[in-house]
């Protein structure tokens, strides 16, 4: 498998070289809003430790990371007033991965509301408002 590239966009966000609308951060993980949300409240959760995807991440980091995914998913559902959530994670181009720093998508869901198509930039004000709702639920 290709080696981890420290110049991927999420590594730049972790280093503060690129902006992000952050909703949660601790020693293990960072959660921030997806700029092309496929659902209202679409959040990404990434580890601070470098890993390309599920194939190379340290199992101990993965174990800690999934606990953060659960924490943020619960807050995204509660904060957004959603009925459920889809959790997505893609591996390599063939698996749908575009950014090669492992990340979990948290997509709040409502019955009968389909996901929007990928690749459409979201409304900045709406994304900021949804981030505040999720942060409020995180306490
Ligand atoms: P994938 O690797 O297929 O899981 O897709 C990468 C995801 O990252 C997509 O949902 C993009 O909308 C999202 N994305 C790409 N660049 C940024 C960025 N600078 N800030 C937030 N989300 C991003």
Key terms for this structure?
binds adenosine monophosphate, alpha+beta, 139 residues, HIT family, subunit A
General description of the model:
With 139 residues, the chain is an alpha+beta fold. It has a single domain, classed as HIT-like (HIT family, subunit A, 2-Layer Sandwich). It contains 3 helices and 5 strands. It has helices spanning 9-14, 59-80, 124-138; strands at residues 22-25, 29-33, 43-47, 84-88, 104-109. It has a 5-stranded antiparallel sheet with strand order 1-2-3-5-4. It is globular and about 40 Å long. The protein starts with 8 loop residues before the first helix and ends with a helix. The relative contact order is 0.23. The model has no long low-confidence stretch (mean pLDDT 98). Residues 9, 18, 20, 34-36, 44, 90, 96-99, 103 line the site of adenosine monophosphate.
Look at the helices and sheets and give the structural class. Answer: alpha+beta
Largest sheet: 5 strands, antiparallel
As for the number of domains, it is: 1
Tally of DSSP β-strands = 5
> How much is the average pLDDT?
98
Corresponding CATH superfamily: HIT-like
List the helices and strands in order: HEEEHEEH
Helix content: 25-40%
How many separate helices? 3
**Assigned CATH architecture:** 2-Layer Sandwich
Uncertain spans, ≥5 residues at pLDDT below 50?
Answer: none
Strand coverage percent: 15-25%
The CATH class label is Alpha Beta
Ends distance: 39 Å
- Hetero ligands: adenosine monophosphate
